[in-house]
Q: What sequence folds into this?
């Protein structure tokens, strides 16, 4: 089975400083990986996805993630945090079966942004 | 266009009662998923529907949980004889599922509280 590990349950940054949210995956084959964001009392929104094309993936709201096979990592970054980025972020790996795909979620990282 | 919608947004019930949660997927999406988000278990897959095929129920936690999808569109998740451990946010997602890596779009969820 595939899995993802989010290394930090909470990350605190100041507005305008860089963001790094760490994720490591475990997969027996080339995985498909996603980052989703969940704002308080809102649904999950897709930030970006990696599907074995370019290893550097650009997403919405200035976020990007780099797939590093040698390190089995898929860390999420943003050059400059904004107050509106405060939310919970989930690293997700896809398990593909015959006829469907199941998402396996990490435990989440709560990003706190201070003024 | 319209996204995935879920109703009710909040549901409070007494232990032992049955509840029904509804999901309206994005129009044209053939695949529909239910997930559960709880404090102790994180985000976990419950059940999957694809078109008119038999659903994959491998994630349902007990036989008190069931789901159906009528006409390949709207889905209802039913929990019978609710228990306090059923308290969670129930998320529905839909996708086109054309094979390979698929993007699942999530609804805002239904927060279930069992007293």
A:
């Amino acid at each position: 089975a595939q899995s993802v590990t989010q290394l930090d349950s909470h990350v605190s940054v100041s507005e305008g400083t860089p963001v790094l949210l760490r994720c490591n995956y475990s997969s027996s084959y080339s995985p498909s990986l996603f980052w989703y964001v969940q704002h308080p009392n809102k649904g999950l929104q897709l930030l970006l996805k990696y599907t074995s094309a370019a290893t550097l993936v650009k997403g919405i709201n200035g976020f990007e993630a780099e797939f590093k096979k040698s390190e089995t990592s898929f860390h999420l970054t943003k050059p400059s945090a904004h107050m509106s980025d405060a939310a919970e972020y989930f690293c997700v790996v896809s398990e593909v079966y015959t006829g469907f795909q199941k998402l396996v979620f990490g435990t989440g990282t709560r990003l706190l942004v201070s003024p | 266009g319209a996204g995935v919608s879920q109703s009710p947004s909040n549901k409070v019930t007494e232990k032992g009662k049955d509840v029904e949660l509804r999901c309206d997927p994005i129009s044209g999406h053939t695949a529909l998923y239910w997930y559960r988000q709880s404090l102790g278990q994180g985000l976990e897959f419950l059940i999957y529907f694809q078109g008119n095929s038999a659903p994959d129920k491998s994630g349902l936690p007990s036989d008190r949980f069931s789901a159906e999808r009528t006409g390949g569109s709207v889905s209802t998740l039913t929990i019978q004889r609710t228990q306090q451990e059923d308290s969670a946010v129930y998320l529905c997602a839909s996708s086109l599922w054309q094979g390979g890596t698929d993007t699942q779009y999530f609804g805002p969820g239904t927060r279930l509280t069992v007293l």
